[in-house]
Amino acid sequence: MAEKTFTHKELAKFNGENAQPTYVAISGTIYDISGKDAWKNGKHHGNVAGKDLTDVLYNKSPHGDKVLKGLPVVGKLV
């Protein structure tokens, strides 16, 4: 089965609003963060789901990429 790919426009639909799943892209990989309480309603500390948050994760987050461990991967950003 081929890996699912998303454009930036397609990814934007998965912002956690209106019962949509909550996805974010990090370094080209798209993660499903729907089950994370910190991302309720698709928002977390001023960040919005449905976007590429690579810069935020690596340059502004105190957590770094350890928060990605165990998250379901849903595809790739193209």
TrEMBL record:
Gene3D superfamilies: Cytochrome b5-like heme/steroid binding domain. It comes from the Bacteria. This is Cytochrome B5. Pfam families: Cyt-b5 (PF00173). InterPro entries: Cyt_B5-like_heme/steroid-bd (IPR001199), Cyt_B5-like_heme/steroid_sf (IPR036400). Residues 6-78 form the Cytochrome b5 heme-binding domain.
